[in-house]
Specification:
The complex is a heterodimer of chains A (143) and B (177). Chain A has helices spanning 2-11, 29-41, 58-72, 77-88, 103-129, 132-135. Chain A is mostly helical. Chain A starts with a helix and ends in an 8-residue tail after the last helix. Chain B is built from five helices and seven strands; from the N terminus they run H-E-E-E-H-E-H-E-H-E-E-H. In chain B, a hairpin with a 5-residue loop joins strand 6 and strand 7 (148-153). Chain B is elongated, with a radius of gyration of 20 Å. The chains are: A mainly alpha (143), B alpha/beta (177). Chains A and B meet through helix 3 and helix 4 of A and helix 4 of B.
Chain lengths: 143, 177
């Protein structure tokens, strides 16, 4: 029974949590938190659907090193992000800035939600005007 | 009538959206460097660690910067094109050897021929990051004022060279030639 429990416990070791990033953490926990936040905000350009925190590509490791050095040099988050976009463009950011060029991108969810709600309200209103017995009968659903 | 027109219009808009969107290559990330000064660098050459090469050596000249590595298949693919471009003798090609091994890089140039006037050795990829490099091969065109005119991502072909680079070299953007 003990051996079974040991096997069971071994199976519970969360191997998926072993990080890609093998560099030592910052001594300062606030710096480390900012580092972790920023690595998740920056896209790995070789493996485009991963952040540089998730990726083990050579470039992602290089960008983490740059990020580390910038933070260690006392740069602000905005300065770090500017360093990255100056080199790689807005594409490096997982959250593109809200500028006129991206208004449609950022506004689209709200616009689509309003359009969808409008359509739903119209359909519900129309249905509610139908006699109850007819509306519940799929055969007569001519609306 | 409207009942049919609205869905039809939505459908047409979606088709147009996908028609344009799906033909774009997401792997090609536009460079924010175009029209801006080329990032300055100075690095030891692949051939000789004591010898340095950098942007200052090409001040006042139009040149091409080609980013490569021996680990990069596309670089092997474009190598003959680079040799051909060298033979044209239109502009110098500067190499940037990216995240590579010096001996392997030397052997590559010995065996395949050296299209570069000089090759900077960047094993840590720091200069490459300054240039916004994310996947070799990448080829930049820099004019005599040190402004980046164009960037090609993917192996270079004579077709791309003649279509994209040569006209820009001749007219020069702001190039006073």
């Amino acid at each position: 029974v003990t051996s079974r429990i040991i096997v069971l416990l071994c199976a519970l070791i969360p191997s998926f949590a072993w990080g890609i990033d093998t560099e030592p953490a910052f001594d300062d926990p606030t710096l480390q938190a900012r580092y972790e936040h920023l690595t998740n905000e920056l896209r790995c350009l070789v493996c485009q659907n991963q952040s540089i925190a998730d990726s083990n590509a050579g470039l992602a490791a290089d960008l983490r090193r740059e990020l580390r050095e910038l933070l260690a040099a006392g740069k602000s988050d905005a300065e770090v992000l500017k360093f990255m976009t100056d080199r790689y463009g807005d594409f490096v950011l997982y959250r593109p800035p809200v500028v006129p060029r991206t208004w449609l991108l950022w506004g689209a969810p709200a616009i689509l939600l309003i359009l969808g709600l409008g359509a739903a309200v119209r359909v519900i209103r129309r249905r509610s005007r139908l006699p109850i017995d007819e509306a519940s009968d799929p055969e007569s659903d001519a609306a | 009538m409207l009942r049919y027109l609205v869905p039809a219009a939505v459908f047409v808009v979606l088709v147009a959206f996908f028609w344009v969107g799906l033909q774009r290559d997401p792997r090609i990330v536009p460079s924010p460097l175009i029209g801006k000064p080329a990032p300055a660098f100075e690095l030891p050459t692949v051939e000789d660690p004591a010898h340095k090469v950098g942007t200052a050596d090409f001040a006042g000249r139009t040149y091409v910067l080609n980013v490569w590595g021996t680990w990069c298949g596309g670089c092997r693919e474009e190598h003959d094109t680079l040799l051909e471009i060298k033979r044209q003798n239109l502009v110098p090609i500067v190499g940037l050897n990216w995240k590579d091994d010096r001996d392997l890089a030397r052997r590559w140039l010995d065996q395949l021929g050296d299209p570069y006037v000089a090759t900077a050795f960047d094993p840590e990829g720091r200069v490459a990051i300054d240039w916004g490099v994310y996947g070799a091969p990448e080829t930049f065109l820099v004019n005599a004022r040190g402004v980046v005119l164009f960037k090609h991502i993917a192996p270079l072909t004579m077709d791309v060279w003649n279509r994209e680079f040569v006209p820009r070299i001749k007219s020069g953007g702001e190039n006073p030639s």
